[in-house]
Amino acid sequence: MLRRIPDRNIWTVYSAILLLGIAYGTSLAVLSIHLDALGIAKVAMGWLAFAFGLGIVSFSVPAGILSKKLGPKPILVAALLGYTLCVATFPFLGTLATLAIARFFDGVFSVNVWVSAETALLSRSQKDQKGFVMSLYAISIALGYVVGPILSRILVPLGTTSAFLAAGALATVAALVVLFKLDGSSKADGESAHALTSESAEKRAANSAATIFWKVKTACAATFSYGYFQASVVLFLPLYLIEAKGIAKNQTILIPAFFAGGMLLTSTVAGLIGDRFGHLFVMRILGIIGGTMVASFVLLSAFPAMCVAVFVAGATLASISPLSLALQGVVTPEADLGLANSFYNAFYATGMLLGPPISGFLFMRWGGGTMLLHLAGMWALFVVLTVIFASDDPRYAARRARPSEDRDAEPMLR
């Protein structure tokens, strides 16, 4: 892997994101327990989650603007330290209002971390390896979510406060790693000066926000769909399995592990295939398979079969996220990456905000089966969009152009 990605700065970002992922996993593992001990009602817990998502949505675009003006490094350091402040003070807050403010700024600092880290990675990675680079980025976060709960379980006997403080310490270490190890420039290693000077002025110049959005619209559609799906499934799939399928509560705990396992095993493969054959094309295939797996839950009754379906859903739908980032990096000039990433994360957060209330309404009104079918329908709609806007993928455009070039050259060959 070091030969495929020789730029040590990319590995520095991975290290920081892994530490942050562990911090996320450590704090989130005890969040509901801590809030319940404070006497916070479940409805209020939902509003705290809304405050977190609102922070992401509100500051997604400003995060891109800041990353563009100041560069990814200072924003990444500041955002990691800001997250440290939020998570470390959280266990000492006792009212719903102060907890909501902390969760709001948790979202603000988190989206700044994501935008600046993704901008740094996309600007430094070569065009033919962006899918691979971003798949390792997704794996870094996912591994953190695996390790974090384990660490939290070790610390819980000392009290939930210790888990939040440990998360703050990990985020601080991540900030120090970025501060001392990450170069301030965004130039990718191995990129020659000739390549930079020969790049057209049009590609180097910043585009309007509308132009940028139109370039990355399919990537935004992908991340919206995934945010909507992820937030809905985490809340309601376990309830559906318990109420409609008769699955024991302790068995439903295994469901997220199968989903994460599928993602961890296949995302790098999906990234490599996307780099070679086109990111949007691979996303379309993954959307078809994953959406089918979601719909199949309505018919499945055996728990082992459900675990297989969840594994396949994780292997496909979770792999769409890094591929959509890679597509965004390919179609967006470096000068516009910060703003493009802010649009991307804004759509992700919007999906997270809209998914749970709509899915919850459908669940209560018509049952969990209808809720799952509507999620499968959403992925079907995404697949349709990838067909309509297939030309957003540069490799598709190149394939379309090649036959016409061959036809033009044919008389000359004769």
Automatic annotation (TrEMBL):
Residues 9-394 form the Major facilitator superfamily (MFS) profile domain. One of its GO terms (cellular component) is plasma membrane. Keywords: Membrane, Transmembrane, Transmembrane helix. SUPFAM superfamilies: MFS general substrate transporter (SSF103473). The chain crosses the membrane at residues 12-35, 47-66, 75-94, 100-122, 134-156, 162-180, 219-241, 253-274, 281-303, 309-331, 343-366, 372-390. It comes from the Bacteria. GO terms for molecular function: transmembrane transporter activity. PANTHER family: TRANSPORTER MFS SUPERFAMILY. This is Putative glucarate transporter.
